Amino acid sequence: MLNFILLGLLVVSLLAISGCVDKTAEQAVEPAENVQTYVIGTEPYFPPFEYADENSSSTIIGFDVDLINAIAEDQGFKVQWKDLEFDALIPALQSGQVDIIASGMTITAEREEAVDFSEPYINAGLALAVAAGNEEIKSVDDLKGKVAAVQMGSTGSQEADKLKAEGKIGEIIYLAHVNDIILNIQNGRADFTINDLPVTQAFMSQNPGVIKIVDDEITSDSYGFAVKSGNTELLTMLNQGLANVKEDGTYDQIMAKYF
Ligand code: GLN
User: How far is the CA of 157 from the centre of ligand 1 (A)?
Assistant: First the structure.
């Protein structure tokens, strides 16, 4: 009998506790429901712009991540990062799988037809790099018959395509990530790469003696964040947030942290 009474009391008190917990939980999530979450598409193998944290591979860090987080805080929205291959980013934006692309994406006239870009947020033109010990290639004029390793869907690969069409280079190997490009240069399968200058420079400072830059001004370009064509509301928030974090010094802090 006593056992039954105790059991009854236990059930009643558990119900009371769970009732309380539920209520608090509801109250706690209520304000968050008003905050919009935007999904950010990125290819996180592109240091120093977006890459896996070495202490926790599921966490993406980098210049773009800090800048988007600062803009989100300024504009009062939340972000959720989605890992995609670079050449899948624009299709994902167009199909509504992601709301924003933040992936070291160069603003080009061709891409402007498919997406809307924010104001430029950093200068990043293309550079020509070769193995550190290569004494043969000193400029774009020395690439005849030479093999390129470039990132699929990137402006570097478009530049290589252009040079190939003009008969100025040999074969092109298209790869998914910058690391694969470097491996191909290291093992001699490729002679050179054309890639974004700040990314090549960051690789060189982390891994001295592997590659060297022989032309740092093939093009002068800028990165922008992309939204779906016509999404002016989100574009205005990004541009306003970018202007604010530039104004209040946050942008300079992020710049100093990564460069
Ligand atoms: N900036 C280059 C482009 O936009 C490469 C970007 C990247 O690989 N993340 O094509």
Answer: 9
